[in-house]
Amino acid sequence: MSDSAQRQGDAFENLLHEERRFPPSEEFAAQALAQPSLYEEARSRGTEFWADQARACLSWETDFTQTLDWSEAPFAKWFVGGKLNAAYNALDRHVEEGRGDRVAIHFEGEPGDTRSYTYAELTESVKKAANAFESLGVQKGDRVAVYLPMIPEAVITMLACARIGAVHSVVFGGFSADALRSRIDDAEAKLVVTADGTYRRGKPSALKPAVDAALEKEGSTITNVVVVRRNNEPVEWTEGRDVWWDDVVDTASSEHTAVAHDSEHPLFILYTSGTTGKPKGILHTTGGFLTQTAFTHKYTFDLRPETDVFWCTADIGWVTGHSYVTYAPLINGATQLMYEGTPDTPHQGRWWELIEKYKVSILYTAPTAIRTFMKWGRDIPKKYDLSSVRVLGSVGEPINPEAWMWYREIIGGGKAPIVDTWWQTETGAHMISPMPGVTSTKPGSAQVAVPGIAVDVVDEMGQSVPNGSGGYLVVREPWPSMLRGIWGDPERFKQTYWSRFDDMYFAGDGAKKDEDGDIWLLGRVDDVMNVSGHRLSTTEIESALVSHPSVAEAAVVGAKDETTGEAVVAFVILRGSAKDDDDIVTTLRNHVGKEIGPIAKPRNILVVPELPKTRSGKIMRRLLKDVAEGREVGDATTLADNTVMQQIAASLRK
Ligand code: WT7
């Protein structure tokens, strides 16, 4: 095992002595959708289990003839020969089957404005948007960049693309103009859908200027920019290119037939950070993605579409927002809440007020949010009626037992089961999670593979480790919502995920099996950081830093942070002419914000005279991590220059 995985393993050792167990109540267990038989069914049916789920969760225009074609591994084809339309499955069929009056989305804007869409209304909006995009020349297979805040138009846009068969590429609104442009270029997108802006912490916040800046440099593939009016702030306008959503969508026809697409037709691309400076365009296709997201949404959360109100707090800019805001809840005919703003606007009780107001029964959020609420104090949620809550979900990073217990007691009233769901942009849907009516939960552990999924923890050699040991997390069998590749880069796909071990998907996470065989996630074992549940690449931030004229060299590490899980800490060597003062730190932080986005801004930038390197020139990030976390520096014997760490220590004392 690598040094960092070993160290993480040691740090988590104490977790494995966690003795607390929380079995579901008899009442919950008796009525739960997922029963122990679901695991037996998955075992006995093998791959055909997923054929059953595909037919149960979705309506196919043409049934598939083969469940899985793995002959061109690692490029999978699921539900071969099947044809379906994602938007039809999410919308029209609910209307046709008499659920048109059910609320699909309750939207709450940050300023307190509200809108609700029934399934019938959302269907109509998506049909209009599909017609509007087609009138702008968007056709099946074209890519559409989506740069929108958390407003219903984001979901409408994604589904309108899916309806046409156009491939959406959502770029998180917190990413910079440069990041947006590189994603537009990589996917060769034809259209951008954006908004004038949104609201953040009680103030209007602009989005359109970033799109203008992204398209300033000649040679983009974009022909039109559709702009949703959200905050009514003035915007620059490029005639002939920019069009208002109101003008093209509101006036469009509400008749639009959803043509069925092949099960393997691309549904979306979503960029995520890897171990190099260049983000990867993760490609997902239709039938498999929809099957596993809908299946997991139903069973992991014990979803009752007639009565539950589901709230996934993730932004649509991340995979969680794709799988568990746009697709699964609508495929399953659920009612969901969508909230635009920050949790502390206008006050720190906003989320709990919303849960009380909409009677949210299933809450799905990230440990970083829970830790923030813990800091604000339990008195705040205690002021609200949270009795509607019956299932709680966690995602994005390991949840520490303390936060887990707080979540259970304060938000879940000591009885709602917590499902800690491990998955990735690449996996598309939950892969490891308790089943709320079956699993006796342990604070801090994601525990068991989802029925039908084969995960394992293996050693360096790819051998399954015994209970009580740690290693690398792998997936042994293909799964329906697996990524189908990296956009435009099949080699990188094979290299990144399929070359580390034979015939296994390498997730990039370290993990341990406890004495019961339950899985505990230990964080990334590669140069990927997890800040507030968002993935950032050390290399990407390093290249942003060295692109600044004052920086000669840079090394970035993820350091433990009480609230955000990890925080970005950068070590930089300045060029001879640059001055080491407070300004340079601010300048460099802003520079990273401009290159990538505010989320990537380092928490600390430390100016140092040297970086620790091996004789072959590889930066020893492990040693810098020790410094960043205030630990005694570990074994430095492989350093080319063994005085470097002393030089760094001396420079930081100055
Ligand atoms: C990485 C994937 C999955 C949607 C959000 C993040 C970490 C995710 C958990 C969890 C421990 C987790 C892993 C994974 N991660 N969920 N429940 N417990 N770690 O998606 O940006 O693709 O990041 O997030 O390290 O590899 P992502």
TrEMBL record:
Residues with N6-acetyllysine modification: K618
Presence of keyword Ligase: yes
UniProt record, GO biological process: acetyl-CoA biosynthetic process from acetate
Residues binding Mg(2+), per UniProt: V546, H548, V551
Catalyzed chemical reaction(s): acetate + ATP + CoA = acetyl-CoA + AMP + diphosphate
Domain Acetyl-coenzyme A synthetase N-terminal span(s) in chain numbering: 37-90
Pfam families named in the record: ACAS_N, AMP-binding, AMP-binding_C
Residue span, AMP-dependent synthetase/ligase domain: 97-487
SUPFAM superfamilies referenced in this protein's UniProt entry, alphabetically: Acetyl-CoA synthetase-like (SSF56801)
Domain AMP-binding enzyme C-terminal as annotated: residue spans: 540-618
Keyword Thylakoid: no
MF-aspect GO terms: acetate-CoA ligase activity; AMP binding; ATP binding; metal ion binding
Family matches, as InterPro entries: Ac_CoA_lig, ACAS_N, AMP-bd_C, AMP-bd_C_sf, AMP-binding_CS, AMP-dep_synth/lig_dom, ANL_N_sf
Top-level taxon of the source organism: Bacteria
Necessary cofactors: Mg(2+)
Entry's EC annotation: 6.2.1.1
Annotated NCBIfam families: Ac_CoA_lig_AcsA (TIGR02188), PRK00174.1 (NF001208)
Name of the protein this chain belongs to: Acetyl-coenzyme A synthetase
Species in which this protein is naturally found: Arthrobacter crusticola
Gene name of the record: acs
